[in-house]
Structures are given as structure tokens and as C-alpha cells.
Amino acid sequence: MAIAGENRLVLVDSVGNPLLRLNQAGLDVNQISDIIVTHFHPDHVSGLPLLLMDLWLIGRATPLNIHGLHYTIDRVESMMALYNWSDWPQFFPVTFARLPEAEMVQVLDSSEFRILASPVKHMIPNIGLRIEFKKNNMVMAYSCDTEPCAEVIRLANGADLLIHEASGESVGHSSAQQAGQVATRAEAGRLCLIHYPSGRYATGDPLVEARQSYQGDILLAKDFMIFDFNLNAAAADLGREFSGWISNNRPSGNLQEP
Fold this sequence. Notes:
Metallo-beta-lactamase, Chain A, 5-stranded mixed sheet, globular, alpha/beta, 7-stranded mixed sheet, 8 helices, 258 residues
């Protein structure tokens, strides 16, 4: 997930080949100012060493901020030590910002948006996020990987959009129906399901499941989906058609989605 402003580009987690994917999305990797690492599981952090190396190889010189819980950042530093990154010549400055495991901790505050974090209920220490856009007072919340919990409800309280995982009801995860329950309790304007089983692993219809517990607008997250928070709430027609607020169009010239 990338949060792109005029003066700040924030990457949330890093997996696969981040440089390729960001280029496919039409984002300039040199503009990345911050990386938020939600937790230390491979499907959220495995691409970070490659991204840091690629930024170094293409000549980045500007500082980079990496935010996460103490538990997470300690492991990121240990992981990078295995690559001997301290010996990479002329490596750009990296600042690690360790977040306390407390609710509504401010991660960063820019002229365009403020990002807050709260611990969520996963198998290891993990954070969900609340992004408050200042231009129009719109709010997006992200559950990350979690069981249903009060912390996510508070993160998403009154949010225009809640992005919630729907892996299935299990330890440290939520089903689509449970995601709908969280969205209902948070009075979120719209629910976007992410981290759901797909392909041959798909079972049932997550949209149908979520509608059992949430009456608002629901959609499935797709690669390269864009939410435009520059529009005001009236223009976005929140909770209805969201005309002009969301785009499923993929950038031209990119490769097939995985």
C-alpha cells in the first residue's frame, strides 16, 4: 500500500519486488520518504532488503524513515545485518522510528495527512493504521492482519473507508463477515476487503459474507486500485457510488497481476 501526497510518499510494508511494483503503479521510488512496517511476517516484510538495496544501487542519497514497533524494528535491523548492509559503500541515511505499543500513537504528521497506529490482535506484535487527510477531513483506516478487536473499531471510528483483512476466521485473522461487523460498529462509510483467499484457495464469496453484517458499500481490494482523497466528501458521494473517488484502472504498460 502506498500513501501518495504532494510532498510525501509513504509505503506500508514491502514484499515481492517493490521497485518493479511501484514502477508499475506509476510511482517514483526515489520519492519514498517513509516506510511503515506493520509486523515481521514474510508476506509484509520480505521485500524490504531488496527495496533498500535497489534504492542504494540507483543512487539514492536522501534520508529514509522506517517506522514500526520495537519488536518489528529490532528484527528488521537483524535481518539487514545478515546482508552486511553496514558495509555497503555510500549508503543513504536510514532512520528507524520505534513506536510504542499503545493506541493512537502518531507515526507521522505532514502538511497533507496524519498517520496514527494502534496495536491489533495478531500472532505477533502488529499495528493497524488510521490516515487522516487534512484537505477534506476524510479518513482511511487499515486493520492489517488481526482478529476482530476493539482497537480496530476505534481506529476506524467514523472513517470514510475501512480496509480490513478477510483471510478467514482463525487465530490472528478475521473472516469477511467479521470484517463487516467491525465496519458496522465503527460506522465506517465504506468497507474494502483485503488479504482474502483467491484463486484455487478461494472459498465462498467474501462480498456476500460481509453483507451479512454490514449494509454499506463493500468492494474487494485489487492490485493498483486507487482511492483519491483529494475530492471533498460531497463530490466523493461517500457510501453510495463514490463517483470519481475510486479507480480500478491499471497503469498502462505494466505486467500481468500475480
